[in-house]
Amino acid sequence: MAFLHALGGVFGLMLMGFVGFMLAARNWFGAETRIMLPRLITQIALPPFLMYTIMHSFHRNELLMLAKGALLPLGSVVLTFLLAMVLAKLARIKRQHFGLFCASVSNSNTIFVGIPVNLALFGETSVPYVLLYYAASTVFFWTVGQYSITCDITDSKCCIPVRTRLLQVFSPPLMGFMTGIGLILLGVELPEFLQNVARSLGNLTTPLAMIFIGISIYDMGLRSIKISKDMALLVLGRMVLGPLVMCGFLYFFPVPALMGKVFIIQASLPVMAQAAILSAHYHTDPEFGAQAVSLTTLLSMGTIPLYMVIF
């Protein structure tokens, strides 16, 4: 039953992604729409969704548990990154995507895929734990992960201003999350009409995110995916090493059952899209990044139900 439930939830997400794929194939979306959709999700839909969810999921006396819980995903991401570096050196991963390889193995798509998947599998009670993993992963990626990707640049030095790095860490979704925590600590309850607006905007998150992923997969092109040695190791690292490291942490640091399941699912998700975006921005190896996102996203349709049953 668990497998069928997980498979049903993921299949529902696949259908939404397929809608985006088919509409992209019929040229419904131009270049402006492809830029607008991720902005709409991350800046308009996600912040109020995260704020509303955290305010309705935790009480003030539960925030200490929330803070402690964030240490587990952070430790898991850091250890996975270090193991990815060792693996990359032993396997002699190509220099032009060495940093991208390590960042991709250690950081998963915790929002665009994480939220809809966990909502489908576990319901709204899972979202606070999704946010814990997201907060830890976001801070790590936009500091250590981004720096490792910039180290792939060989033709010139690239200096990123400190202000830019801070703005990337404190993104709108993370600020929505922090706003919800701040309102809980202050004991402030928003008027009902504002809560309804936040919930309605937040309901856009899942369908828009899956439609965007479908568009992205169409743009990347399934036929262009090549399973090289480096790509095979990246897939194994992201979808096998990541959840195994998290399982190790959970063995030594037990947490509530639902939190543990969410953390394992989060650790097994596909490569985050921002890794490919940064690779393209810094002109390192954008094709490798795009293929990593596309391939792991497709494979996750089979691995997510599998992990749901196993763990």
Would you kindly provide a written description of the structure presented here, covering whatever features stand out?
The chain is mainly alpha-helical. The protein has 15 helices and no strands. The protein starts with a helix and ends with a helix.
Query: What is the count of DSSP helices, taking H or I runs of 4+ residues?
Result: 15
One letter per element, helices H and strands E, the order comes to: HHHHHHHHHHHHHHH
Question: CA-to-CA gap between the ends?
Answer: 14 Å
State Rg.
Answer: 19 Å
Please give the share of residues in helix.
over 70%
Mean pLDDT across the residues is: 82
Largest sheet: none
Label the structural class: mainly alpha
The low-confidence parts are none
Tell me, what's the shape?
globular
What is the subunit arrangement here? single chain
Number of strands: 0
How large a portion of the residues is in β-strands, by DSSP E? Answer: under 5%
Short description:
The protein is mostly helical and about 300 residues long. It has helices at about 1-25, 30-55, 65-70, 70-90, 100-105, 115-120, 125-150, 160-170, 170-185, 190-200, 205-220, 230-250, 255-265, 275-280, 285-310.
